[in-house]
Amino acid sequence: MNPKNDYNTREVQTGFVESNGTWIYYEMLGHGHPLVLLHGGYMDRRMWDDQFYVLAARYHVIRYDIRGFGKSDLPQRPYADRDDLYALLNFLGIQRTYLLGLSLGGEIALDFTLEHPTMVDALILVGSPVSGYPHDVMFTEEQLQTLIQQWMPFEQAVQDRSRPRMVECLMAHPTLVPSRAYPEARQRVRQYLSEYSFAWILDPAPRQDLDPPAYGRLAEIHIPTLIITGADDHFQLHKSANKLAHDIAGARRIEIPDTHHMPNMEKPTEFNQIVLDFLRTLP
């Protein structure tokens, strides 16, 4: 059964909010405690299609296109993703929320929590990097060189401004996209990538990083935190997950078997149950 069938699509509220020269597109559905979904890099809000309607049965769910993705623009001026999230919440009159972020979205959720700790009641981080993680701590020299070699075809496609080749490079990545065991999820990711402008890569505006970054500040987080990783995701993200689980007091870590970087699309039923079980434990 498609969870969309439980809702009249006219019930979904949509709009734009202005933030530092950019119009940020958002969608809302449901009632209850606010829950914001932050998508991964190269994707947009649609990667949460399997969660948006299910979670809206219990929560006031907001999903939006991060600056430079989907329907949100990327003007050429300095910006911070955490400031865009703050502008969205302020516009909607939301003072406290849960945050669920995947990859880039998880990093934004983490940085936002450190900057606005009283606004976040719980964190769910999926395949999330940690801002400021030192390269010499994350990688051996051999691992770093392997990574550089692995990404060289993508970097060449960026230099050539070839979006089709960029898509193919990303689709060929061993863990970034769903495996061939999940053809429907894999096809959706290909579609989203094919529709993406790649403005975030081809025409980047200067991002203002959190200072000091999250790496040395995780012990400042004192809210319920769930860390989810695909069991077959890249070792870099497992290392980040270990750091998060170690430094955030009381954080729980769960691995979803036989999934890569997007377990929410690869095993949506299992993923949704994990998220709902965690949220039900909150006051």
From TrEMBL:
Keywords: Hydrolase. Gene3D superfamilies: alpha/beta hydrolase. Residues 34-268 form the AB hydrolase-1 domain. It comes from the Bacteria. Pfam families: Abhydrolase_1. The keyword Transport does not apply. InterPro entries: AB_hydrolase_1, AB_hydrolase_fold, AB_hydrolase_sf, Epox_hydrolase-like. GO terms for molecular function: hydrolase activity. Coiled coil: none annotated. The keyword Hydrolase applies. This is Hydrolase. It comes from Dictyobacter halimunensis.
